[in-house]
Amino acid sequence: MCKVEWQVLPGLRPYDETLAAMEARAAAIAAGTAPEAVWLLEHPPLYTAGTSARAEDLTDPDRFPVFEAGRGGQYTYHGPGQRIAYTMLNLNERGRDVRQFVCALENWVIWTLAEFNVKGERRAGRVGVWVVRPDKAPNPDGTPREDKIAAIGVKLRRWVSFHGISINVEPDLTHFGGIVPCGIREHGVTSLVDLGLPVTIADLDAALAATFSRAFPG
Question: pTM higher than 0.90, yes or no?
């Protein structure tokens, strides 16, 4: 396997242009003309609709631009203060197992959060990574409140992945109010700064780099 090429893309990247570049890179990886890649970036405020998005979950359609993402999943918000890692890996060489790949992405997020002593967890039937909020009032049924801190959405073409993960560092959490994030109404969203941690995007990038090879060896 070739070494994975990492790029930090500056500024707020336009969504359409970035998606087109990502698709082109994935095609080049499949053709054997480019190495695997991870792109770290931020977008301006926008909503993306995955292939399972439901119209009723876009509750404020005029708030921000809405893009058809082509990835799996439902509606997601992207914006400043949220670190996106677009992950273009060749599953022809890493095992053609979609479930295992998504699990590896979840592990990557969980191990990255652990670098800041945050316990991220999976939940059956809820894609993404969640944190328990004992500091908030429990749910009406007495169960602890849980907030989503990271989203995962992927697509494969010729067994090369694109899209990837997003982790909330310090986004404006009110911006999630124009959608039902990932179709889940009964839980909220949080960020590292919302949890009381003075973490920067650069801090998170270092943690992502430190844990990547554990999640994706080779």
Answer: yes
CA 169 to CA 64: how far, in whole Å? 20
Give the contacts of 151 (CB within 8 A, at least 6 positions apart). 73, 76, 127, 128, 165, 166, 181, 182
Alpha carbon distance 181, 32 (integer Å): 36
| Angle at the Cα of 90 from the Cα atoms of 4 and 161, rounded to 5 degrees | 100
The encoded tokens of residue 26 equal 């994935």
Structural contact between residues 127 and 152, judged by C-beta atoms closer than 8 angstroms: yes
Query: Which residues carry out catalysis?
Result: 182
Q: Each residue of 133-183: pLDDT tens digit? A: 988 888 888 889 999 999 999 999 999 999 999 999 999 999 999 988 655
Q: Which amino acid is at 87?
A: T
